[in-house]
Predict the 3D structure of the following.
Amino acid sequence: MKSGGLFHRFRDSKYLFGTAAIAIVSWELVWLLSDGIGFFHSWAITGFILEKALSPEFWGSIFFTISLTLLGLVGGAAIAIGIGYALVNSPFLENSARGSLFFMRAIPSVAIIPLLLATIGSRLALVVSLVIWMVVTKLIFFVMRAIQDQKSSFTEQARLLQLEPWQLLFYVRVPSALGMIMTGVRLTVNRAYGAVVLAGLIAGTPGIGRDLYLARVNADYEAFLGFAVIAALVGVLFFWVFKEIESRTVRWRTVS
């Protein structure tokens, strides 16, 4: 068992080094195509990132970005579960709202930010509202599908036990739908994180997005590319963490 674990770690490390090598070669090819104008070598960007890693302000920026993403993700997930449950239990509401939900999900976050700026202003509430919007309009479809695909025997037994509606939701429907919901959360987290970074880039709210905004305004292309790489790495970390959470906490799937 131990040797198998070591083998998997060695294999994963080879994939990691291979991916890093491909990324570096691709980066240098782009540098050659750009003739070095407004673009920097990979080792220059690496040096910039290592230098920033020693700055408390840098980690504060990452902390703000991650905190706002998680706050909006939790709030959006709670709203999506509540609305999805209500829609599934009312065919009229579901048929009426489905078209509107598809339309709202198709709206890009960059189109929502000006509306939020006009109503909320450039505050942290703008970021949280944007993330909740992005999460709800995507995750709600996973919630509805998860509840609809549940075994009818579960709900029948719950009715025989005369459970209250809130007990039916939290003791039967949500646990049995958790697999699909966690998949939706994993696929939604990068959408939420991208909304936080985009809000900072456009509205100047705290986080990695504002660092990108300041670098662009000051025409500091090395800093802009460095923060872009940092933003990408944090996004990959988000996806990996939630994938691990899903695989370790949800070991079952509802069989339809």
The radius of gyration is 22 Å. Residues 56-249 form a domain with the MetI-like fold fold (CATH 1.10.3720.10).
